[in-house]
Amino acid sequence: MSAKPAQKMDPARRRFLQDAARGTAGCAVAGMGLMWMVQDARALPERAIRPPGALPEEDFLASCIRCGLCVRDCPYDTLVLAELGVDGAATGTPYFTARDIPCEMCDDIPCVAACPTGALDKDLTDIDDSRMGLAVLIDQETCLNALGLRCDVCYRVCPLIDEAITLERRHNERSGHHAIFMPTVHSDKCTGCGKCEKSCVLPGEAAIKVLPIRTARAPSSEHYKLGWEENNPLVDELIDLPDRLPGTGTDNLAAPGGFEAEGAFQPTMKLPTAGADG
Amino acid sequence: MSANTHLPVGHEAIRDKGLIRAHKYLILRRLSQAFFLGLFMLGPWFGIWWVKGNLSGSLTLDILPLTDPFIAVQGIVAGHWPELTAIFGAVIVAAVYALIGGRMYCSWVCPVNAVTDTAAWAHRRMDLPKGWQPKKNTRFYVLGMVLIVSAVSGTIAWEFVNPISMLHRGLIFGMGFAWTFVVAVFLFDLFVSRRGWCSHICPVGAFYGLLGTKSLMRVSAQERAACDDCMDCFAVCPEMHVISPALRGKDEDTPLILSPDCTNCGRCIDVCAVDVFQFTTRFDDTPAPGRVREKPKTTRKIGKAA
Predict the structure, then answer these.
(1) Which end of chain B is more exposed for a tag (fewer CB within 10 A), N or C?
(2) Architecture, CATH, for domain A57-129
């Protein structure tokens, strides 16, 4: 081998290797192009809401075969298949635009029943459990209720009235002697059906919009504990910081800096001290 | 020879068999393609919902689910195991095509076939050079590439570009700019590569070809002894390499076209003035003597084979 640098490769083998290299290289280029297109199409636009029960977007594109059976079985023509270059969602996948036709939240969820692959999850049996998105009162400057009027339309049309949307009363600072009934969405109930967005009386864009959960919600912090929900200490078995209680020797309002004013409130309970009961 | 190639393909067949018989399978195929597309269009056009969906997945008479097995495979590779309905539909489709001939999907059902056939017809009329001719196994490279991209990206990757879905779904649900993919395939076949898309690139055809490797329905060059070398079958065949082994075979070679690339389009049957070809099954072992050569090196007994 080393003595024959110019040794000829078997022509058939040489041709095979050439063809294989050419095919592989061509497919690598084409594959990268396809990969780029696929990644590009994964960015689902904010305004495209997937049908009820839709798997998370990354799983949805592995499971939706774009047959349109959910579209066909939607009684309100809410769902459409995305058209290439016209709608932003991945070509041929189902979505709806709440401002055009919202989801009517059928009890029997025909779109989910129609899906042959499970891209719309059959585990969704109660439409109230669906989370297509989350309504957000996004423009609090033009919302009529926020201005102090009693429009209330989004609240009235909500299929889960007084649960998904409530009217929270607060003082009208502008007039000084009126109330503002602020439409307030509750994420534990809102299905993202979009009826509020559809019915918002403002011309053009709605003040309240259904947004994808991923946009509408910030992940709750794991770092901060909600003391009123969790009673356990910050770090198990290590330290138990004294609770703020009235009395001397602690940082409290009754005796700031431990200074005991004359006639101040005297605590009757015993203060916990580190290691006292450990 | 060069003068011969400019004669319209099948002119002898038209002269001998008449226009209709010389286009019998072409007409039947167009009717079949129109029939399958029409079934899907009944709903959106006339409100008759016998068939809902599209070629990717459908529901017929509210009972029969059908799924494109290639799409199902991509979904599984991408990491989603489909529900039973889709699996069931894919198995039915795969079984049918494995039985009758995988690439009958290409020539009798696929809506892009009319596009690329038109491109091939225009190509012939304009007498263009055949252009880039990728290797026969290119489509299998593309098939592998699609499955790899599906697996890596976790998506049903080919559906982002598949011209078949683009056209079929576009006609049924709304086209958008999906027509650009169809036009691209037409122009590719016309100017870049003769018979380029369906016969060299398309991974869907490759997949269905693999499905039908052992399919029953086959074209046979039963009367190959009568062949007069007019070459019309080669000119009209979208996969011309499948013909030679059968047509040019010796007595002991099977006259059956057994290549999984054959689309069972039947055009070779149409254009043959001397009726060499016919549809039959892969079990047909009727003796089919080879052609008599003009100057045989050794004398050969004719009609004693098998």
Answers:
(1) N
(2) 2-Layer Sandwich (3.30)
